[in-house]
Amino acid sequence: MPTPVLPILLTVAIGYLLERWRPADVRILATIAIYVLLPALIFHSLLTTTLTVRTALPLVGVNLGLLLSIWLIGKGVTLARRYDRRQESYLMMTTLFMNAGNMGMPVALYAFGDQGLDWAVIWVLCINTISNVIAVYYACRHIGTQSQAFRTVLTLPTIYAAAVALSMRALHLPLPEFLGDPVQLIGRAVIPVSQLLLGMQLAKVRAQVGDHLPQVVLPNVIRLFVSPALAFGLVLLLGLHGLAAKIAVLMAAMPTGINMAIYAAEFDARPRLVATAVFTSTVASFVTLSVLLWILH
Predict the structure, then answer these.
(1) Is residue 36 pLDDT above 50, yes or no?
(2) pLDDT(169) > 50
(3) Alpha helices in 141-226 (DSSP H)
(4) pLDDT by residue (tens digit) across 268-286?
(5) For 66-110, how does the pLDDT look when each residue is reduced to its tens digit (9 = 90+)?
(6) CATH top class, domain 5-292
(7) How many CB atoms sit inside 10 A of residue 44's CB?
(8) b/e burial code for range 257-293 (CB count within 10 A of at least 16 → b)
(9) What is the pTM of this model?
(10) Mind listing the pLDDT tens digit for each residue in 251-267?
(11) Considering only CA atoms, which of 64, 60, 54 is closest in space to residue 123?
């Protein structure tokens, strides 16, 4: 097993065992990660990275193209199998949105270093902004509260952290030296914390995994195999190359986002099925990502 995957597996396992031994309210840890650690990482990365808007645009293009491609596949499956709205929502939630934060950023850092993390941050910023609109829409559209999706996005500090960082870059305003190290340290803390949090959340959703394994095969295949294949095609189409291309394919291969299980439970959008897809795709991804990293290297 490649070394980038092994430390992540160990840290996730610690979080999993901790939750099984001493159950805790993971919402507190999640709140710290989402509202403090991740914004600090995005702010510091965007402010100090050597990447420019021009160089980052192709990666954003791959991200958007991938979402559109998987959405079209989901629509095709929905029509072919005559899914109802809840079935369609389940398929979209488990295939469109990957675990770019808890899994993607640590893998990118361990496999490709700080520059890999910089590219991963661009991907996370893009996917998180979009997913918190579309995912909540699909989770709650059957109860008619879609406006919550937009309110959710507006409460996320990552957007404002990115806006401030980009504004400071545009105005050539450096971060005061006495703030640089604390902000970087706080931001980097999201890497181990997100892995522990993933393990703890997996321990919770494990209890919801029932006799649904046959129904998660298709979403898992799309998320773990079709998605990176599509990303590879988009990389070639958009002329992305080098480390950025590797990060695009790597991030596209991440398992179903853990937040999908949270949204499904909150809005009663087939929560057991979504939890099963999250759990099984995450476990399977330790193997598929190992193979993919071997290919990318």
Answers:
(1) yes
(2) yes
(3) 147-154, 157-170, 177-188, 190-206, 217-221
(4) 777 888 888 888 999 999 9
(5) 999 999 999 999 999 999 888 888 899 999 989 998 899 999 999
(6) mainly alpha
(7) 24
(8) bbbbbbbbbebebbbbbbbbbbbbbbebbbebbeebb
(9) 0.87
(10) 999 999 888 887 777 67
(11) 60
Residue 297 CA to residue 283 CA, distance in Å, equals 22
Tally of CA atoms within 13 A in the half-sphere of 172 that contains its CB: 0
Chain center to CA of 277: 15
DSSP 51: -
Cα–Cα dist 78/265, whole Å = 22
Q: Which of 132, 127, 122 is nearest to 59 (CA)?
A: 122
The Cα 296–Cα 294 span in angstroms is 6
- Quote the pLDDT of residue 218: 95
Q: Are 113 and 4 in contact (CB under 8 A)?
A: no
Q: How far is Cα 239 from Cα 29, in angstroms, rounded to an integer?
A: 39
Encoded tokens for 60: 């954003």
Q: How many CB atoms lie within 10 A of CB 21?
A: 9
Number of H helices, E strands in the chain: 15, 0
pLDDT recorded at residue 208: 61
pLDDT of residue 1: 46
Q: Where are the domains of the chain?
A: 5-292
